[in-house]
Amino acid sequence: MADEPIPAVSIRGLTKRFLSTLALDHVDLTIRRGEIHALVGENGAGKSTLIKTLAGLYTPDEGEIHIDGRLVHPGSEDLPIAFVHQDLGLVDELSIGENVALVAGFPKSGGFISWRRVWSQTRDIYATMGVEPPDPRALVGTLSAASKAVLGIVRALSRKAGIVVLDEPTASLPGPDAEHLFDILRRLRASGTSILYVSHRLNELFGLADSVTVFRDGRHVSTNPIGALTTDAIVRDMLGRDLEIDHRGAEAGGGRPLLLEVEGLCIGEQGPFSFTVGAGEVLGLVGLRGAGHEAIGRTIFGARRQEQGTIRLGGDVIPADLGIAGRIARGIALLAGDRLRESAISGMSLRENLYPNTANVGGRAFLPIRHDRETAEAARVLDRFDVRPPDPSALIDWLSGGNQQKVFVGRWLATGARLFIMEEPTAGVDIGAKGVIHRMLRDIAAQGAGILVISSDFEEVASLCDRALVIGRGAIVAELAGSALTLDGLIARSSTGAEAAPSVS
Ligand SMILES: Nc1ncnc2c1ncn2[C@@H]1O[C@H](COP(=O)(O)OP(=O)(O)OP(=O)(O)O)[C@@H](O)[C@H]1O
């Protein structure tokens, strides 16, 4: 049709194979100018492969990419696309201004870097985006997750690209902080920028995206305007079936024997925190950035120094100076939120990642490793968690982010611990797998373990936990349980308790 405007991006028949995996199978995708186009799909659907192909990191086996009507070859030419990858690629040891300059360029004066202009360039870029600029001299390592996400976006946009691709920018952002990002994206759209937005949080697409494309197993399944969609319809396309809703056990509240007792715990300026977790209970600790909830889990695990207060597990006091190994031996497990840095054993197989310690599969340390037994057990865990590929000999590095997360959760559940501290257990995990992980956590709790979910995903806490404590300004500001534990309740209590006006800058 002659009058049809030329799309910003037109992808036709894109195909990418990795050995036996067909990660993209002749997919088509059209992104119009000035639209927010959401791309969703289960873990392993091919979303990241598409983004990495656009970024020129992978060369497609077949297919064509047109930008503004022109056939392009990513990787061999500079394209007007800005990428915000899941791993934001920021350098913690450098200042905000230097991180911006790594992408935007270091302004020079008389052949030397002009630091005055490095700082003012950063302030200007933030201001154009309508975001209150932080001190450009501050080290990135001191920023919260939300501020880093904003910086990642601000920095990418400093290239003034007409197309922006964001890969799960809200995976570890609390709802109110994510809203600030959405404002930035809406402003960009209004200025004519086209946005490809990958997310597993389907609810956030309503009110943000204009159209939604669903991939399944490397194939394009559907593209629809958001107005024609419901969450259920998106999920049906993603899974190829209806979702089994995993309802939380009704028996919230008391009557359980105490498993964990925390009394007067102080961490730096934060605290004192006092609370309990019953055997069989799933307790959520939620909060906005800087609220201190993550530090509590890390202190119980021994990864942070326990300065004051008492921690009891099963009635026994855990000595304050007991290290991580001693705490693991007593039955405390921690799933770290930063899974790539703290959980993955790169270059090793799924079996080795599941069983880094042979004692986990009914063996004893120092006995020869029983590969056959581990392989059989690993295959069972991979199958139970619907990990793709379910092959114990596959390298962890080959798996999509969400499938890696399922392996790490499986690893800890296999240790037979009594208390599981789970930081953001389903960040980056698709909605089908989220249900599987939640069910596994509930099963483990039903067998008498206690679960402490440290999360900024309020929806997850509302649906998974029996009870939740809202942490704000270094103290417990609210406790919600049973029918009072709802998404709205959590948002209301956290925004009044933690930071009166949450800000991302
Ligand atoms: N470098 C690689 N080597 C081998 N296989 C790969 C590689 N990268 C991706 N794959 C495989 O390609 C498929 C698509 O993966 P991709 O990372 O694109 O999925 P995704 O939709 O981004 O998933 P997630 O939501 O979990 O991030 C998966 O089966 C994955 O295991």
Automatic annotation (TrEMBL):
<protein>
    <submittedName>
        <fullName>Ribose transport system ATP-binding protein</fullName>
    </submittedName>
</protein>
<comment type="similarity">
    <text>Belongs to the ABC transporter superfamily.</text>
</comment>
<dbReference type="GO" id="GO:0005524">
    <property type="term" value="F:ATP binding"/>
</dbReference>
<keyword id="KW-1278">Translocase</keyword>
<keyword id="KW-0547">Nucleotide-binding</keyword>
<keyword id="KW-1003">Cell membrane</keyword>
<feature type="domain" description="ABC transporter">
    <location>
        <begin position="9"/>
        <end position="242"/>
    </location>
</feature>
<keyword id="KW-0067">ATP-binding</keyword>
<dbReference type="InterPro" id="IPR050107">
    <property type="entry name" value="ABC_carbohydrate_import_ATPase"/>
</dbReference>
<keyword id="KW-0762">Sugar transport</keyword>
<keyword id="KW-0472">Membrane</keyword>
<dbReference type="InterPro" id="IPR017871">
    <property type="entry name" value="ABC_transporter-like_CS"/>
</dbReference>
<keyword id="KW-0677">Repeat</keyword>
<dbReference type="InterPro" id="IPR003439">
    <property type="entry name" value="ABC_transporter-like_ATP-bd"/>
</dbReference>
<dbReference type="InterPro" id="IPR027417">
    <property type="entry name" value="P-loop_NTPase"/>
</dbReference>
<feature type="domain" description="ABC transporter">
    <location>
        <begin position="255"/>
        <end position="498"/>
    </location>
</feature>
<dbReference type="InterPro" id="IPR003593">
    <property type="entry name" value="AAA+_ATPase"/>
</dbReference>
<dbReference type="Pfam" id="PF00005">
    <property type="entry name" value="ABC_tran"/>
</dbReference>
<keyword id="KW-0813">Transport</keyword>
